[in-house]
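Name: Protein preY, mitochondrial
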Amino acid sequence: MLSGVCGRLASALRGTRAPPSAVALRCLHASSSRPSAEKSERTEKAPRAFDQALLEFLVCPLSKKPLRYEASTNELINEELGIAYPIIDGIPNMIPQAARMTHQNKKQEEVEQH
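Structure predicted for Protein preY, mitochondrial:
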């Protein structure tokens, strides 16, 4: 939306003889130097990798315990609670509602075994 406004302003300024203001010049520069949304949608980027140095600072929001990174599923695992938080584009989604359960309750597992 902002780029559309800047584009219209840039078009209007090109047709005038008065010197443009500093704000108008910034908009003019921004409208010509930024790639359009269509171009960025067309080019597919590889997903960002998770920076494992973050594990030093990240803890489970529910138990406040350290998490383990699982590269095969690209998740942060709380083994104590059996919760896996997804990592999307290199950013951990630490919202408990977004997490999935990694294993069943021990009582359920024992019932199924017998």
